[in-house]
């Protein structure tokens, strides 16, 4: 690689790498109220969209990555990918377990989750492609899509670890622990999907194209998810969310700010970008060492 090419290549921060392990957490939801950010259905439901998207989405990550394992020719990366698979499987399950509580509270998410399941299983699933180039192309496309999505899970993980305003507003401690345990593991493993993409493909055009697809799809699904929750919340009459509500919550520190979200775009598209440049492994590890759910999981397996 010439000096010029090296200056345009992703620049990892080696000290941010940590060995990955899945923590077998479990949460009790019986005391969590419908509006777990008190008096703020909009913030509650905006974050609740995670429970609609992640069970199917993270199951899909695991499904795709199991197919990529034979393409990995680096032992350290294989270990990271196996750790990633273990963590994502647990995340998917933990968010799935919130859904019965929403049903109990009168908010049945099935009409929405059925569509999300269809998207990940059928639209983004294994197509009946012949072995060879077409099948490999579709696998690489999905590996790149996961790297782009993981840019946002790491962004959200870093955000929620620092979202002190949620504590000040009295947000439900169990939900906060779920979000921060998950967020901290997203920060821990934030480089894995990108490193895997670099290892098996790494093409810049594919990175940019799949980023655009992932970003547009996430924005579309998120705003539909918020609308779904607001329309089906049994305690609300004619509730509607707007972009203004979102900006205001971002400004108040209750949701990620619009500015931070916009800045994340050129960050991912920079040729020197590497996920280890953003977020703090030290902060993530410190949260996991104190998380009630992670500590209980450790005690159970000790
Ligand atoms: Fe996750
Ligand atoms: Fe992740």
UniProtKB/TrEMBL annotation:
Q: What is its EC number?
A: 3.-.-.-
Q: Which InterPro entries match?
A: UCP07580
Q: Which GO MF terms does the UniProt record name?
A: hydrolase activity
Q: Does the keyword Hydrolase apply?
A: yes
* UniProt keywords, alphabetically: Hydrolase
Q: Name one Pfam family in it.
A: Metal_hydrol
Which PANTHER family does the entry mention?
A: METAL-DEPENDENT HYDROLASE
The protein's name is Metal-dependent hydrolase
């Amino acid at each position: 690689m010439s000096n010029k090419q090296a200056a345009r290549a992703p620049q990892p921060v080696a000290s941010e790498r940590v060995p990955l392990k899945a923590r077998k957490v479990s949460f009790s939801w019986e005391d969590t109220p419908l509006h777990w950010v008190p008096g703020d259905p909009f913030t509650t439901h905006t974050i609740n969209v995670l429970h609609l998207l992640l069970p199917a989405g993270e199951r899909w990550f695991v499904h795709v990555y199991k197919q990529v394992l034979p393409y990995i020719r680096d032992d350290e990366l294989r270990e990271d990918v196996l750790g990633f698979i273990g963590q994502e499987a647990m995340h998917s399950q933990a968010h799935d377990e919130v859904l019965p509580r929403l049903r109990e509270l009168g908010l049945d998410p099935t009409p929405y989750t059925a569509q999300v399941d269809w998207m990940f299983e059928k639209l983004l699933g294994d197509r009946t492609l012949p072995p060879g180039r077409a099948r490999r192309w579709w696998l690489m496309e999905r590996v790149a899509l996961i790297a782009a999505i993981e840019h946002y899970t790491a962004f959200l993980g870093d955000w929620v670890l620092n979202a002190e305003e949620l504590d000040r507003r009295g947000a439900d401690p169990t939900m906060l622990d779920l979000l921060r345990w998950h967020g901290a593991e997203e920060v821990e493993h934030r480089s894995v999907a990108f490193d895997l993409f670099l290892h098996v493909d790494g093409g810049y055009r594919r990175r940019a194209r799949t980023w655009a697809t992932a970003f547009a799809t996430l924005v579309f699904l998120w705003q539909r998810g918020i609308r779904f929750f607001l329309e089906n919340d049994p305690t609300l009459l004619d509730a509607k969310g707007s972009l203004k509500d979102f900006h205001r919550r971002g400004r108040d520190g209750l949701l990620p700010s619009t500015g931070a979200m916009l800045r994340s775009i050129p960050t991912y598209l920079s040729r020197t970008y590497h996920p280890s440049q953003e977020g703090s492994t030290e902060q993530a590890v410190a949260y996991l060492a104190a998380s009630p759910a992670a500590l209980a999981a450790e005690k159970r397996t000790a």
